[in-house]
Specification:
This protein has twelve helices and 19 strands. It has helices at residues 3-11, 19-22, 46-54, 60-67, 147-157, 231-249, 261-273, 278-293, 301-305, 312-316, 318-325, 329-339, and strands spanning 29-30, 87-90, 95-99, 108-113, 117-124, 127-132, 135-140, 144-146, 159-164, 168-172, 181-186, 190-192, 202-207, 210-215, 219-225, 229-230, 351-353, 360-362, 365-367. A hairpin with a 2-residue loop joins β13 and β14 (210-215). The longest helix has 19 residues, at 231-249.
C-alpha cells in the first residue's frame, strides 16, 4: 500500500473509516535511478537500488551498467543539459489540475496529487506536459518541482518494493540462513522494504507486524512514486468505492441469541474496543456475529467468544469480570446492532491492532 493510500485509509470521514483505500488502487509511476530519472522500471537487484537511494545525486555508474556505455569521456559529459532530470513532482498540498492544452482555459483531463510524480514530455512557456500513470496533459510550472527539488521529494515520499521471484521464500527472523522462520511469501508478492535495515544480501520487510528478512537473490527491487489519475479513473474509483461501502453496511440479518448473549458480547466489545469510537465497537461486535453466521466457527455467541485461543480477554477472565461489573451503554448498543444484522466491516471475521496491514482500518484496529 502506498503512503497516500494509507493516509486516506485513516482519514475517511463517516462511519466506514478506511474503506476508500481498498478501492483506490492506482498504477504507480516507477522511477529508475538513472542520471536522467526517467520513470521506467528499475530491476537491477537490491544492491544497486539501495546504493542509488543513498547516492541519489551521483548516478553515472548505474546508468553505465544499464546502457552498457564505458566511455566516461563522452561528448555528452560536458553538456549542461545531459544531467537534467526527466522527473517532475507535484508541488501542492492537495491536487493539481492537469489540462488538455497549456492554458488555464483548457479542459481538465485529470488530477496530479500531492507527492505524485511523472515524466516530462514537453515544455511550452510556463507549462509542462507530463505523463503520470495513464494521465497525460499540461500543468502550470508554478505548481511543479523539477530537477534536484523533484528528486529530493521523490526520495522522501517514494516507496521501495521487493517482488518475490521464487515459487516461495522463507521470511527469516534475522539476516541469516541459519535464522528462524516467521513464515512464507509466494511468487509475485510485493512487499515494502525497510531500507535502514537492508543490505546487499538481505532485504528487511514488515511481516505481519514483525521485522523479517528475505534473501535478495530471489527478489526484484523497484522504487516508485505515486501517479495521478484521469477523470475516467476517478469516476471509476468513486463507483467502486460506493459499491464497497454498500457491501460493508448491508444488513446481514438478525441472529437468534440467548438472553445473556447481548451482555456477553457487549462485555467483549468493552474489553477489545472500549477506548475506540463507536464505529470501532460496532466493528468488533460485527466480527463476532460474522463468525456465528459462518460455518467455519461455532454457531452461538458464547461459543465463539470462548473458543480456544480466539479472544484473549475471554480466556483471561476479563470478559466475565466486566459482565459482573456492568457493561457501558455504547458497548451494549454495538452488540445489539450487530446481533440485529448491522455491520460496518462486511463479512470480516478477524481484527487486530493496525500496524500498516491492508484491510478496513477503524480506529486502532484493522478488520479483515
Amino acid at each position: 500500500m502506498n503512503r497516500r493510500s494509507k493516509r486516506l485509509l485513516r482519514g475517511l470521514a463517516g462511519t466506514i473509516v478506511g474503506i476508500s483505500a481498498l478501492s483506490m488502487v492506482k498504477s504507480n509511476a516507477v522511477m529508475a535511478a538513472t542520471s536522467r530519472y526517467s520513470l521506467s522500471e528499475l530491476n537491477v537487484g537490491a544492491a544497486k537500488v539501495l546504493d542509488s537511494l543513498d547516492r541519489v545525486a551521483d548516478l553515472d555508474s548505474i546508468e553505465s551498467s544499464d546502457t552498457g556505455s564505458e566511455d566516461e569521456g563522452s561528448e555528452d559529459s560536458d553538456d549542461p543539459d545531459s544531467h537534467q532530470s526527466d522527473l517532475v513532482m507535484a508541488n501542492v498540498h492537495q491536487s493539481l489540475n492537469v489540462r488538455e492544452e497549456p492554458s488555464e482555459d483548457s479542459a481538465k483531463v485529470g488530477l496530479l496529487y500531492a507527492d505524485c510524480g511523472g515524466t516530462i514530455l514537453d515544455r511550452s512557456g510556463n507549462w509542462t506536459k507530463i505523463r503520470s500513470g495513464n494521465l497525460i496533459g499540461w500543468c502550470s510550472n508554478d505548481y511543479l518541482l523539477f530537477d534536484e527539488e523533484a528528486e529530493s521529494l521523490a526520495q522522501d515520499v517514494g516507496i521501495t518494493l521487493a517482488k518475490v521471484t521464487a515459487d516461495a521464500l522463507r521470511v527469516r527472523m534475522e539476516a541469516s540462513e541459519d535464522s528462524g522462520v516467521w513464515g512464507l511469501v509466494k511468487q509475485g508478492d510485493q512487499i515494502e522494504v525497510i531500507l535502514d535495515h537492508s543490505d546487499d544480501d538481505w532485504i528487511a520487510i514488515d511481516f505481519e507486524g514483525e521485522e523479517g528478512f528475505l534473501s535478495a537473490d530471489y527478489l526484484d527491487i523497484t522504487f516508485s512514486v505515486d501517479s495521478g489519475e484521469t477523470y475516467d479513473e476517478i469516476k471509476e474509483r468513486d463507483r467502486r468505492e460506493k459499491e464497497e461501502k454498500a457491501k460493508l453496511i448491508a444488513n446481514l440479518g438478525p441472529v437468534a441469541v440467548g438472553a445473556t448473549d447481548e451482555t456477553l458480547l457487549g462485555a467483549l466489545v468493552y474489553c477489545e474496543a472500549g477506548n475506540q469510537p463507536y464505529e470501532g465497537k460496532l466493528a468488533v461486535a460485527s466480527v463476532v456475529m460474522n463468525r456465528v453466521r459462518s460455518a467455519a466457527y461455532p454457531n452461538t455467541v458464547s461459543s465463539v467468544i470462548y473458543a480456544s485461543g480466539q479472544f484473549t480477554p475471554a480466556m483471561s477472565g476479563k470478559v466475565a469480570a466486566r459482565v459482573q461489573l456492568g457493561v457501558p451503554d455504547s458497548c451494549l448498543q454495538a452488540a445489539r446492532e450487530a446481533i440485529a444484522g448491522a455491520t460496518n466491516v462486511g463479512t470480516a471475521t478477524h481484527f487486530r491492532r493496525w500496524t500498516g496491514q491492508d484491510g478496513i482500518v477503524i480506529g486502532a484496529h484493522v478488520f479483515y
